[in-house]
Amino acid sequence: xxxxLFSHSYYYKLDPKQWKNKTPxxxxxxxxxxxxxxxxxxxxxxxxTNLLDNxxxxxxxxxxxxxxxxxxxxxxxNYLTKMCLTTMRDACFDMIAIGKKYGxxxxxxxxxxxxxxxxxxxxxxxFIILGEGELTLLELVNTLERGENTDDIAGIVSVQxxxxxxxxxxxxxxxxxxxxxxxxxxVDMNEYKLxxxxxxxxxxxxxxxTRGCPYKCNWCAKPIYGxxxxxxxxxxxxxxxxxxxxxxxxxxxxxxxxxxxxxxxxVRSFNDELKNRRLNIRYYIQSRVDLLxxxxxxDLLAESGLEEVWVxxxxxxxxxxxxxxxxxxVEQIYEATNLLKQKDIRxxxxxxxxxxxxxxxxxxxxxxxxxxxxxxxxxxSVSYPLPGTKFYEKVKDDLRQKSNWKDSDDLxxxxxxxxxxxxxxxxxxxxxxxYRKSQGVSNFKKMAKNPFELSFEKVVSVMKLxxxxxxxxxxxxxxxxxxxxx
Length: 486
What we know:
By secondary structure, this protein is of the alpha/beta class.
């Protein structure tokens, strides 16, 4: 059977903020697709772009291997690919051109190509695979291998007789356990371990226990797995963890689901599987504050090894949460945070500024919440109009020529919000400074009570108050002027 060269179009080095973190994850979605194709008799290889900085580096690989198919299959579990960063799109276009230069049949599956199929076809791609792609890819390649017509294959877009033709969408896979374990052997794991070593953090691999999200936040795009929520069995995930531990010695995991543990009793079953197999792991997740408050969820998570949870706090203004269709309450953020801290689980907040209707008072509420609750980490963004969302439909007439960020630290306001881009970029840095200042003050108080119980990191945070106090004082006036200038 024909051979397939798998790749993807995310380059950590082309996103300076992410590369600085030194915590790259292998392309999990790509590995799932490669594993399924290999299970069905195809020869598969991987050209992993994550740790590279130039799409042209794929040319000598294609020249040497001469694959029949170049499959550019992005990792749909990596939320950064949803932002369809301009630089990454251009890199993909270059890869398509190189593939065609050497006679490859080029197949592309990504959130961006799902949203902008015509642009990728114009650059030379033969087929765009829409949304969740494993089963579509298998059917498509099987059909091409038999020399048959592709008109009836659900979930593809192609050019037929000079016309771009989109076939009906494919129903998402419901029984995720049908998929084989991802093809981790295709990854140079030592290269990832070396980068993680530079970060100072324990090496971590990414696992997805679910696909999709049933919630209706109106700014959240779901181009790959949709609004459905499907789950691997707890036994499948325990098998996966067991394999990664025995093969690579990994004991820490990033559960990269949009929402972890939503299905009733799943976390309890997962906890039981870990206990029965004596799998002692640590992991971190994304979740919602309302979900965390259900029954004994936090107790089970703590017992199974959860060390950190990122919650979509977004805002401390109920007006803004309601406008987002978030479905959570500000008081739930407070309650869940306090309960998690009682269990020694780290709490991190995703915060979003710039949503329609947000004013200065709403922003102050959010800053106040951060100072009140002192999460262990924060991630700040501005509202980003992703195609296919209600939010995008609300602001699409305001979008200027720029419709994508260049990288994840761009923070450009691409619609007419309450304030201009310079304000939000300054605000993002100001909130981080206020957060660090509050940490330093808290640690100073602890030092005064128990001077011998502080870590080196906490002492450093106290010393940095000499920078953060005057800096935030100045920034307050700069932000006020930027507000007034709007």
